[in-house]
Amino acid sequence: MTGSDLTFTFRVGALTDKGRVRSHNEDSLTSMPEMGLWAVADGMGGHAAGDVASALIVEELASLGVPVSAQDQRARVLERLDRAHHRIISHAETNGLSAMGATIAILLIHRAELTCIWAGDSRVYLWRDKALTPLTRDHSEVAQMVAAGTMTEAEARVAPRRNVITRAIGIGPEARPETVSGAVRPGDRLLICSDGLTEHLDDADLAHELSLPAPPPDIAARLVAETLARGAHDNVSVIVIDCEALPEPEGEEL
C-alpha cells in the first residue's frame, strides 16, 4: 500500500471557552471526522453579529456530504464558504450592521491528502517528528510586516494593530480564503485554533503541549486551561486531531 492509498482513523479533542474577559463566545467549531473536516470560526462584530457569522459558516459546512476525492472535498468547502460569505453580508445589511464576519481555519483530510483552507488569523499547526510546523499564514497587518522584514515576530506579538486582519468571511465583496495542500502521515498530530489561543501561547508553548503523550481531549483541555490561566483576553477554541492509519484490508481467500 502506497502513502497515497492510506486511509486514516482519527482521535479528536475539541473545546471552546469564552475566556476571562468576554461576556459571550463568538467562536464556533465543528468536528466531522466521517467527512474528514474540522473547522474553527472566530466571529467578529460583537454579540448577535460575530456569533451569527461564525455559526453561519459552520452551518454551511455541515451540509458538505461525503466527498469522492480531495479535489471534490475542496470544491465543496469553497462553495460553502462562498455561500456563507454572502449570507453574512445579507444578514448585516438586513440588520443595519456595519461590520460582521468571521475568520476561519479548516482542515480537510481525504485518504492521505491534507488541505488547509483559511481566512484571517485562526491557524492550523502540524506536530510531526518532534517538530511544530504552522500550515497557515495569518492574513493580518502584522503578518505582512513580518513577511516584509519590517517587524520581528516578537514585535508582532505586542504590536498595537496585531488584531487587524486583512481577510475574513463576510468582509469585502468576495470570500478570499487561501488554500494549501500536503500529505498526512500516521502519527501526525494537528491543531486548529482561534487567535485567542495564540495570543497567550507561543510556538514553544504549543510544541510542549502537543508533544505530550496524552489523548487529544486531554491536550485540548490543557491548552484551554493554560490560556485561561494566562488571562484569556479573547474567546479560545481548539481542535486537536491524532491521525492513525487503518490496517490494510486482508485479501479474500480463494
TrEMBL record:
CDD domains: PP2Cc. Transmembrane segments: none annotated. Residues 11-243 form the PPM-type phosphatase domain. InterPro entries: PP2C (IPR015655), PPM-type-like_dom_sf (IPR036457), PPM-type_phosphatase-like_dom (IPR001932). Pfam families: PP2C_2 (PF13672). One of its GO terms (molecular function) is protein serine/threonine phosphatase activity. It comes from the Bacteria. This is Serine/threonine-protein phosphatase.
